[in-house]
Amino acid sequence: MTSNAFGFTTVADIFVEWGGSKQLGALLASRFDARRALLITDRGLIDAGLIAPVEKSLVAAGFNVTLFDQVVADPPEAIVLGCADMAKTKQIDIVIGLGGGSSLDIAKLVAVLITNEQPLTEMYGIGNVKGNRLPLALVPTTAGTGSEVTNISIITTGETTKMGVVSRQLYGDFVLLDAELTVGLPQIHTAATGIDAMVHAIEAYTSKFKKNPLSDALAREALRLLSDNLIAACKDGTNRAAREKMLLGAMLAGQAFANSPVAAVHALAYPLGGHYHLPHGLTNALMLGPVLRYNAKVAAPLYAELADVMAVPGTGNVTARSDAFVAHMLTLMDESGAPRRLRDVNVTDNSLSMLAKDAMKQSRLLVNNPVEITEEDALALYREAF
Ligand SMILES: NC(=O)c1ccc[n+]([C@@H]2O[C@H](COP(=O)([O-])OP(=O)(O)OC[C@H]3O[C@@H](n4cnc5c(N)ncnc54)[C@H](O)[C@@H]3O)[C@@H](O)[C@H]2O)c1
Ligand SMILES: [Fe+2]
């Protein structure tokens, strides 16, 4: 069989070391000339004591550090713009994002906004960012969004809508994976972010147009690492091996879906995050079962392959193995402690039509789904999840 043409892009410089963030200053000083650093993070990480050692290492390596700690989950536009305005007054010449997906997504956009006059409102969508950006280093503390290796930033616009900026400028210059940073991540966030990463791998593997041999290889290895270690990391956050494999798996999944985009699970999850302010990974967990069952009519052969990747016990034909894959994913989510029904997280059934209408706005994602989804289908999927 011949192959289709495909492209693949990722961050060029990735370093992985347990405890490595305590040497972030030296790691950056040897790579960049810039020394006026903007460190973007959230208050929770400062309170957890994760930022002080990193700041110390930056100062010791000769960096002048400006700290921005106003990031909130599912960040709204005002935070991005406020951060960029503040940075402009400080003559920042390198941006460091350190935190979960919310901090990394803001860092990526701010690195662009500091050097450009293009308004953020013109950047949403695919390939709409015009200028260049400042040097950009990304250090994730969740395993996770994979944002450290994606060309995507997700921002909450207006009150409730989540929109993506997708552009080559959002790939960072340097990524540090230090799994020690994830040790204190509470169990429910470990579950939520780990499920998010698994969904990235699954949706990249079944993406309709851009799936390719490299994204496939990464998605398979990501899912293997994540499914083997999710429960161990949830049960004992100090399990170093599990934390390391989760962080690596989340990054591999990020590399996969940056090139072979996610689809209906994310498209239906975003309205839940927007309206109900639920953690992104939990919204994925809530929609995963219904969407996998819906997609199986086309994606069953690929789900059957993923059953083998995850070493799901059993044998049988494609349908049997695809069913086993879906059942295994649901078991993993139950064991992780993630809620499984919309009613369990206070979603009301009279909001389901509004959610379905909103999901249709995620056309950037829905086109990648292996099976077409209309507003009626979306409503049926929310009803199933309810
Ligand atoms: N850019 C992308 O490619 C991409 C992909 C998927 C999701 N996202 C976006 O990323 C955001 C979600 O990111 P997230 O799930 O990583 O969470 P997050 O950044 O929103 O953080 C969630 C909470 O976890 C805390 N936290 C993070 N790391 C911690 C640690 N090591 N120890 C203790 N507490 C810690 C934070 O303080 C915060 O309170 C959403 O806005 C989502 O839409 C982006
Ligand atoms: Fe995600």
Account of the protein in words:
With 386 residues, the protein is of the alpha/beta class. It folds into two domains: 13-182, Rossmann fold, CATH 3.40.50; 187-385, Dehydroquinate synthase-like - alpha domain (Dehydroquinate synthase-like, alpha domain). The protein has 14 helices and nine strands. The strands form two sheets. A six-stranded parallel β-sheet has the order 1-9-6-4-2-3, sandwiched between helices. β7 (152-157) and β8 (161-166) form a beta hairpin. The longest helix is centred in the last third of the chain and has 30 residues, at 280-309. It is globular, with a radius of gyration of 20 Å. The N and C termini lie far apart (43 Å). The structure holds nicotinamide-adenine-dinucleotide (NAD) and fe (ii) ion. Fe (ii) ion is lined by residues 145, 196, 200, 266, 280. Belongs to the iron-containing alcohol dehydrogenase family. GO terms for molecular function: alcohol dehydrogenase (NAD+) activity; metal ion binding. Its cofactor is Fe cation. Residues 14-178 form the Alcohol dehydrogenase iron-type/glycerol dehydrogenase GldA domain.
Q: Which cofactors or ions or other ligands sit in this model?
A: nicotinamide-adenine-dinucleotide, fe (ii) ion
Q: What is the 3D form?
A: globular
Give the C-level CATH assignment of the largest domain.
Answer: Mainly Alpha
> What is the number of beta strands?
9
> What are the segments in which pLDDT stays under 50 over at least 5 consecutive residues?
none
Mean pLDDT: 97
Query: What separation lies between the terminal Cα atoms?
Result: 43 Å
Secondary-structure-derived class: alpha/beta
CATH architecture field of the largest domain: Up-down Bundle
Largest sheet: 6 strands, parallel
Number of individual domains: 2
Strand % is 5-15%
How would you name the CATH homologous superfamily of the largest domain? Dehydroquinate synthase-like - alpha domain
What integer value in Å does the Rg equal?
20 Å
Helical amount: 40-55%
Placed side by side, the strands forming the largest sheet appear as: 1-9-6-4-2-3
Number of continuous helical runs:
14
N-to-C series of helices and strands: EHEHHEHEHEEEEEHHHHHHHHH
CATH topology of the largest domain: Dehydroquinate synthase-like, alpha domain
